[in-house]
Amino acid sequence: MEFPTFDLKGKTALVTGATRSIGKALALGLANAGADVVVVGRTKDACANTAEEIRAMGRRALAVPADVTDQAAVEAMVEQAEAAFGRIDILINNAGAAVTRAAEDVTMEEWDQVVNVDLRGAFMVAQAVGRVMIRQRSGRIINTVSVYGYTGGKLVIPYAAAKGGLAMVTKSLALEWARYNINVNALVPGYIVTEINQKEFENEKVYNSIVRKIPLRRLGRVEDIIGSVVYLASDASNYVTGAVIAADGGWLAE
Questions:
Q1: Known catalytic residue: 159?
Q2: Can you give the pTM of this predicted structure?
Q3: Which of 18, 38, 113, 177 could in theory staple to 182 by disulfide, Cβ–Cβ 3.0 to 4.6 A?
């Protein structure tokens, strides 16, 4: 009998949206588990900073600034990653955008902005990395979705639509690419406190309105989702594909 391992030594992970918030935490978490990491974000300096933190942990890192809505940039990013490390074992498809606005006030420019990043861009990245994984006959793709991709939500229609679409992309890719030994799964974070939204939660009314929807009765921390991603990226999840792993404090169970 072989016992499962969560060790990622010798693996290369590519993480989009890796320069702050959840994406940065996941990049560092994968490095802590032993993976070398390709750090992808919009800003050169921010990518370099995250990559330097990963190197300080004793892992190799490559900083690649790229816009996931630009197909040429996505393909160049993947080529650069493969040239540097020889393979891509793990993709964390995490780059995201959102607009908070009443449905009747959403502009088509705002709609396109969100959908182009959260759905179209995520698919383009998965497609480009998937071609590498097909050649390798192995890989792990983890798409960051959202509770709103399953439940819907007020004032976030473009975001909910895009994330719901990405959930279906996840299941469809899992079915198509299983024959290549590529596991495709979705991570569904709940409300996670980050430097981006911390100020918002200082409002007691906002805080209480959200926490009462969470069975564990607290907001999440970035540390709360790292374990789920390491599991999905590791050999411990060899028989898991097309699945939704919710690290949401029980939100989707309500």
A1: yes
A2: 0.96
A3: 177
Catalytic residue among 150, 159, 191, 231: 159
Q: Which long-range contacts (CB under 8 A, 24 or more apart) does 67-71 make?
A: 67/42, 68/16, 68/40, 68/95, 68/117, 68/121, 68/122, 68/124, 68/125, 69/116, 69/117, 69/120, 69/121, 69/124, 71/124
Per-residue H/E/C for the chain: CCCCCCCCCCCEEEEECCCCHHHHHHHHHHHHCCCEEEEEECCHHHHHHHHHHHHHCCCCEEEEECCCCCHHHHHHHHHHHHHHHCCCCEEEECCCCCCCCCHHHCCHHHHHHHHHHHHHHHHHHHHHHHHHHHHHCCEEEEEECCCHHHHCCCCCHHHHHHHHHHHHHHHHHHHHHHHHCEEEEEEEECCECCCCCHHHHCCHHHHHHHHCCCCCCCCECCHHHHHHHHHHHCHHHCCCCCCEEEECCCHHHC
Distance (Å, rounded) from C-alpha 182 to C-alpha 129? 11
Give the chain's largest Cα–Cα span: 58
Provide the CA 82 distance to its chain's centre, in angstroms.
19
Residues 154 and 100: their CA atoms lie apart, in Å, by 9
